[in-house]
Every structure is written in C-alpha cells, then in structure tokens.
Amino acid sequence: MSRLLRAACTLGAALLLASCATDRAQVLKIYNWSDYIAEGVLDDFKEWYEEQTGEKLKIVYQTFDVNEAMLSKIEMGQEDFDVVCPSDYIIERMLNNDLLLPLDFSAIPPEIDYIHANASPYIEEMFRTINPDIDANDYAVAYMWGTTGILYNTDYVSDEEASTWDIIHNPKFSGRILIKDAPRDVYGPVLIYLRQDELQAGETTLAELMLDSSDKSIRDVKRYLLECAPGVYGWEADFGKDQMSKERAWISLNWSGDAVWAMEEAASVGISLDYCVPQEGSTVWFDGWVIPKYAKNTRAATYFIDFMCRPDIAIRNMEETGYVASSGAWEVLESQMDEEEEPIDLSYFFGPEASAVRVSEVLYPDRETIERCALEHDWGDRTDVLLSMWQDVKSSRGEEGEGSRVSWPVIGIFLAILGAAVYKSVDNSRKKRRRRV
Questions:
Q1: More exposed terminus of the chain, fewer Cβ within 10 Å: N or C?
Q2: What pLDDT is recorded for position 414?
Q3: In a domain, 347, yes or no
Q4: Which stretches within 294-437 are classed as H helix?
Q5: CA–CA separation, 257 vs 319, rounded Å?
Q6: Is 340 a member of any domain?
Q7: How many domains does one find in the chain?
Q8: What residue numbers bound the domain in which 367 lies?
Q9: CA distance 119 to 132
Q10: Each residue of 139-156: pLDDT tens digit?
Q11: Contact at 8 Å (CB) between 278 and 254?
C-alpha cells in the first residue's frame, strides 16, 4: 500500500470515528459471525429504519469467528456494541454475569412487531430453559438454529450404521471419520450415548445430562473418545465439509447447517451424502441476537432485531448462510417445502397446521427426533476442565495407525490449496464458519 493511500485510509477512518463520536444516537454497531447475513440486508435495514422512524442511520459492522473473542470484548467493557449474535451457551453466560440489557419490545409499533408475530413456540420454550431464574426470551431473540448429528456417505455407510453414535467407534470406518473440533458439541452427544441405560430406566433425563460436568462423566467421555481416536481421520473446524464431498472421509460428526452445504456440494459431483440425528439422542444449538450491557443505541438495536425477524429477511438470510432461521413464520416454512420429501410433523415448531409438511428433515427435525434432543449449557468455571480433557483426547493419536495416515504438514499444504479453490467458488458465502469452544 502506498504512503498516500495509507494516509487516505487513516484519514477516512478518523473521520468515521469522529462522526460516530459526535452523534452516537445515529450509529448502530453490530457484531456478528462471519458470513452470517445475506448481502444487501444491512442497506435494506437502513432504508426501512428511516421509513419507520424518520431518522438516518450509520452502521458499523464487525465480525468474529469465536464466541469467546466476542465475549471478552464485552466483558472488559471496552466495546459499546449495540447488538451481537452469540451462541446459546454464551447467552447463558452473559445472562449469568449481568452483561445483557432487557429488550424493550414496546419500542416497536404493533403493526411491525415481527418478533412476536413470528415467534416459534419451540424456540421460546427452549430459551426459557437457558436459565431457570431468568426468561432468556426477555433478553434474546433466536436467529439460526440446528442439530448435531452424523453426516455420512451413503455408498459406504448404511442408514442403520449411521443411526448410532457408536459409528465413530466402529473399526470398519477407521481412518474415514471426522469429528468437529468443538468439545461441547462432542461431549453432549457422547454422554447421551454412554448414559442410554440410565435414560431408558428413567434414572436421568436429557436436560439433566446437559448440566452434568461431573468428574465421572468427563472421565467416561474421555475414555470413550480415546478409544475412538485411533480411527479419526481429523479433528476439524471447517474443512470437513470439503473432505466429505471429495470422499476423503465417509463419516463426519457435524452440524446440520454444514451438512446441508456438504450434501449440496457432493450432489453436484455425483456423491451421495445424508445426515441423521442418531437414535440415542443429540443436542440442539441456537444463535441469537442480544443487546449488550454497554450498548449506546438500544432503540436502533431493537429495530434491527425486529427487522431480522421479518419473514422475507429471514428467508434471505437462511438461503444465503445455509443455516435454518429460527422464525416460526409460515412464509419461512413454505419457502422450504419440497414435494419430493416425505411428510413430517413440525407442529412443535410452526403450530398445529404443520403436523404433516413436506420439508427436508435435515433442515427441520420432525417431532420424534426433536424430542430426543436437548440444549447444551455453559460450563462456567468448569470450562477449563472440558478444554483440558479435549486437548488430551486430540493429542492422544500416535504416529502410527490408520487414524494418523496423513501428517499435519501435508494437511496444511492441502488446506492451503483447498482454501484457494474455495475462495474462488461462487457459493463461498454459504460456508459460514461457527466456532464453538
């Protein structure tokens, strides 16, 4: 960069900051995940906001890739973001630590209140379970949601084999298994699998298991994962979708949103992938909009959250990110209907009229599936114990064995080449990366 250009950029940034400082009430600061909003939505919001309020608005938009990175800025009180989009367990942590402002829905005129008009009963119920003493619905509005399950290659893996979490332990698939480098998203499903006898006997519940961070449960999960480790091809944060679509791996413990992207990419090159939530049960996750404690423009933030709940905007964001909108609007459901799909019961999410609708079960799990899923929780001061266990598991692989057949330097070179190819893809905007610790 030339000195002249650098100076111009510095001056531009200074002028922007100066304008923000002089009239903060006309600035909305948004902090969101990378690639997690459709192109043009921010401009459309500014226009809509001016129509509703008669006020012009500037938007300062920043992105993050790790929940904890976002949270640390707010915890230190050094950032005055007006609206952010944390994951469920971070919403819980922010509630517990008094880092959120309650949403003032009265600021939204009834005729444009898309938040309440399109709320899903399931989402509202799940948000009430985030904190038993505080209704999270008063502080957060869900944005996207999904499940954790098994993405698998149907040419090598049967539906029956993929229907159990024990598939990641199956020696038949050694060296062909990918596991998300996301400890809490692995811990929950594995614990559910290991506690099947207690669940069937009614000695515990899924909700109770999601609160279980006891030493015994951590040891049990660690022992099981150590047994699985020799057959693991890789612990991946984002490259697993590409590995599956290129048949380098046949099985991936994955999120439903990533599964949808991988299935579409694989189908374009003649590879058949499918996704299921194992019969033992699994976890659901949510990302939601909140207004942090140090926000300066709560009015515009509330309008923004409301705008994101407008059905046409929810559909645009859903189609571009590849994830499923948390909106309970019938228009959103209609946008995903497919006559080639078998009817499933989504009445829990959209109401009685959705008891038999034709839509992909990867996007929307049916009632029977969702009843064996539970919400993860924040580990609080036990988080370090979880992370320590996870590091022990990942570092356990020896230099020999099928699970270690590819060296990390080779993987690094491969990923560099892969990254360049992916960058050129016109569908890159749909590869939103979630980082959950």
A1: N
A2: 43
A3: no
A4: 298-308, 311-321, 330-335, 347-350, 367-370, 383-394, 408-424
A5: 11
A6: no
A7: 2
A8: 146-284+360-430
A9: 20
A10: 999 999 999 999 999 999
A11: no
